[in-house]
Amino acid sequence: MNRRPVFLITMLCFGFAFFYIPILSMMVYSFNGSRLATVWGGFSTKWYVSLLSNRQVLKAAILSIEIAVLSATFATILGTMAGIAMARFKRFRGRTLFSGLVTAPLVMPEVITGIASLMLFILMAEYIGWPATRGFTTVTLAHITFSMVFVTTIVHSRLVQADEAIEEAAMDLGSRPWQVMKDITLPVISPAIMSGWLLAFTISLDDVVITNFTTGPGTTTLPILIWSKVKLGVTPDINALATITVVIVGIGVFIAGWLLNRAEKAREHDIQLAYQANQ
Amino acid sequence: MEAAHRSPGFRRWFNRRGWIKITIATPYVWLSLFFLLPFVIVIAMSFATRTPTAPPFSFGGDYPVMNTNHYARLIHDDLYVRAYLNSIGNATLATLMCLLIGYPMALGLTRVSRSWRNVLLMLVILPFWTSFLLRVYAWMGLMGTNSWFNKLLTGAYNWVMPADMALRYIPMMNTGFAVVLVTVYSYLPFMILPLYANLEKLDLSLNEAAMDLGSRPFQVFRDVTLPLSLPGIIAGSLLVFIPASGELIIPSLVGSSSRPMIGRVISDEFASARDWPMASAVAVALLLLLVGPLMAYTYFEGKSLEKKKAEGES
């Protein structure tokens, strides 16, 4: 393969143009002075001012973050447990069903999950009385359920690739299985657990369809607010909101990638030192 | 609870078998309650009868065991049949387009230098972390009748076509074309990432061997790379096809109401018509249609993890 793959490089350029031109265009138009969202009317930051002084938007954003933090935390605990169960416990009753339950929500069309969860919550309110009304609780429960399987996938694939010999060595040295889990396995998969939390957080923060079905009056998350505005057409303040989101996410992904990379390098370095010390 | 933690009996149970049981049972019970049970409810609901009560359904009445009218309506009512065909058609077209664009991109990613590769991979993942809704919205801005993008395309069109066929703008919003375009845009990373993960592991010495034996580059691609990347193609296609066929946001924002899509029909039956049994029947029918692809995905996912495990052990 000495020849430069011209066709492939061209496709990469084309693909990235396709990815980023709409986003860049949206960012440029967020500084548009005109009321008409698609006609350029000079540079202005007025949409940012009007957005940041909009109490409704700020309230929705805070609510979204609250739900995302809470649901990501529970999703990470449950998802990590499921990942460990799938990777380390080879045989238990109902394992086939379990493996179906942790993969199906990954690809299930959201509309179906949405109406299914809504019916469950309505019937629960009817027959058990909890959760009494739809809102914060039901949205959080639904978010935990569909984001935990993403954590499971990450933790599972990390565990499957991890070297089980270290765990076996600890067992041979007299550790009990629970000690091995606590002292070795969990620290080994901690980067995976961290990225799982981040993924669950963003999935929850971003969700429209399932939230739309499971929310009630008074609980308006940011995506639901945007959804109800965007249905009416393109508006300049949403351009500003989108730009802020993209910038924050971009910085976040960059920092997270850098931190994970650094942690990974430090770990490799430690392992090398350990090997050298043994020789 | 505190007392239980301190009691030596609980401690011993937890340290021996208890933690394993808790690790399995907690997510199991959770998923059964909040994921499996709702589907059982949907299936049961599809055989119920709509009533003007709250909640708006009942069992029994005129239909002692189950009411299968909703399934009969699915076949006889033109709306549902059209919605299914539109959804499946759009999802298939979008999957093929994603494959055509995503495959060369994934292959290209494996051929650039290491430092470039990390940057470019980050750029593939970045849109995935930003809001789905806002990415659809970005295209609403581009496709509008007096946007710069539409003007550019209109200019190009008018330049190519004879003067008497000139257009003032190209109608893109609220068309089937818009739905497919935005679906491809939104789901392309789901195609690229599994393909890249697969192509990255391929042994380049196989390509060299084929070259040495006289294959031309395209033959090498056709006879070596393409067959070996089949698992990646399958995983990527399922990850695009399944969610795309039930998509709600894209057809609601950029689609045409005269071309119904199944996700929107389910949502409308439920929210506007308040016909829970009918919405459930449509959802069950969509599920039945997707059962094949869903099981294929679960199966291949399990197999690739087993393979990873084998590689980890060797």
TrEMBL record, chain A:
The keyword Cytoplasm does not apply. Keywords: Cell membrane, Membrane, Transmembrane, Transmembrane helix, Transport. CDD domains: TM_PBP2. It is found in: Cell membrane. InterPro entries: Bact_Polyamine_Transport (IPR051789), MetI-like (IPR000515), MetI-like_sf (IPR035906). Residues 61-256 form the ABC transmembrane type-1 domain. Pfam families: BPD_transp_1 (PF00528). It is a multi-pass membrane protein. This is ABC transporter permease subunit.
Automatic annotation (TrEMBL), chain B:
Belongs to the binding-protein-dependent transport system permease family. CysTW subfamily. PANTHER family: INNER MEMBRANE ABC TRANSPORTER PERMEASE PROTEIN YDCU-RELATED-RELATED (PTHR42929), PUTRESCINE TRANSPORT SYSTEM PERMEASE PROTEIN POTH (PTHR42929:SF3). Gene3D superfamilies: MetI-like. It comes from the Bacteria. Pfam families: BPD_transp_1. Residues 84-299 form the ABC transmembrane type-1 domain. This is ABC transporter permease. Its main location: membrane. It is a multi-pass membrane protein. It is found in: Cell membrane. Keywords: Cell membrane, Membrane, Transmembrane, Transmembrane helix, Transport. The chain crosses the membrane at residues 20-48, 88-107, 119-140, 177-197, 276-300. PROSITE patterns: ABC_TM1.
